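Tokens for chain A. Residues wanted.
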């Protein structure tokens, strides 16, 4: 059974890379949108992507140290299925895509608003 700290780490391992994917896709859209001044958006996105990348590195280190592995097993019955192995114990997690989207939005909001006040 996962402790609350282990569960939080697993959830961050699942969601933070999704944030990176969304930010990269959004940067491509901003570039092709033809904004008059796209540089400020790019600067904010690059700064955020750097922070996300560092957090992913730290999450992976912490997972390795804690003996936790997570495997995405695909979409099954409209749920994203994950296998979590924590210090020899196996646990399956089923996450609903629409709830995952809301969580990714929360993480994105945190990343985009931290340390960005003028």
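Reply:
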């Amino acid at each position: 059974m996962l402790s609350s700290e282990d569960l939080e780490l697993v959830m961050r391992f699942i969601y933070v890379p999704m944030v990176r994917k969304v930010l990269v896709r959004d940067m491509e859209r901003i570039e092709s949108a033809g904004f008059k001044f796209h540089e400020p958006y790019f600067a904010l996105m690059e700064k955020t992507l750097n922070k996300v990348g560092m957090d992913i590195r730290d999450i992976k280190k912490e997972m390795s140290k804690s003996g936790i592995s997570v495997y995405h097993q695909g979409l099954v019955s409209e749920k994203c299925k994950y296998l979590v192995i924590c210090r020899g114990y196996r646990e399956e997690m089923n996450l609903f895509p629409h709830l995952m989207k809301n969580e990714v939005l929360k993480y994105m909001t945190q990343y985009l608003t931290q340390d960005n006040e003028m």
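Residues 4-113 form one domain. Residues 79 and 97 are 6 Å apart (CA to CA).
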